[in-house]
Design a protein that fits this description.
Layout: H1 20-43, H2 47-58, E1 61-62, H3 63-70, H4 74-86, E2 90-94, E3 102-106, H5 108-128, H6 134-154
Antiparallel strand pairs: 1-3, 2-3
Length: 162
């Protein structure tokens, strides 16, 4: 067999299976599908709704702050917030400093749901990481944060180092 030349496909171009953005997307989609099924089947929650609940469990915030914190688009956050408000899992209150904005917080029912879902989320995480050592898990998290920061910088959305 001869060496690959400029016109050959061998050794030239992008190999999708080895392309890191593709691998990250496939892994993310697989994990999201797995967890989405569990949240939907058991709790009637979409992944964006669960993210809102998890963020609001940390502290109340505006929809705009949720957009920044979760890196979800405004429409996705708005739909998730509306669905959770309708289910009375999230409450809206007037923003003290900005009359045009509202602060979202978990209702008592939302806090109860969070207390039920959070251990399940942690169990899924533990199951996904079973084959990795604690050192590898820590390294993976550090590397993902670095990739996020590099992507933000390249897109002009540099939010500072994590």
């Amino acid at each position: 067999m001869s060496k690959a030349t400029a016109g050959d496909d061998e050794g030239v171009g992008l190999k999708l299976d080895g392309y890191l953005p593709f691998r990250l997307s496939i892994a993310s989609n697989a994990v999201s599908r797995l967890i989405a099924r569990a949240y939907e089947d058991r709790f009637g929650l979409t992944v964006p709704q669960w993210r809102l609940i998890a963020v609001l469990a940390e502290q109340p915030m505006t929809q705009q702050a949720i957009v920044v914190r979760t890196v979800m688009d405004k429409v996705m956050v708005s739909r998730a917030a509306h669905g959770l408000t309708t289910r009375r899992l999230v409450e809206r209150s007037a923003h003290e400093a900005d009359g045009r904005s509202h602060v979202l917080s978990l209702s008592d029912e939302g806090r109860r749901l969070y207390a039920e879902v959070a251990p399940l989320a942690q169990a899924y995480e533990a199951a996904l990481l079973t084959g990795l050592t604690p050192k590898e898990v820590a390294q993976l998290k550090r590397l993902l944060l670095r990739l996020e920061a590099a992507a933000a910088k390249l897109s002009g959305e540099d939010r500072g180092a994590p």
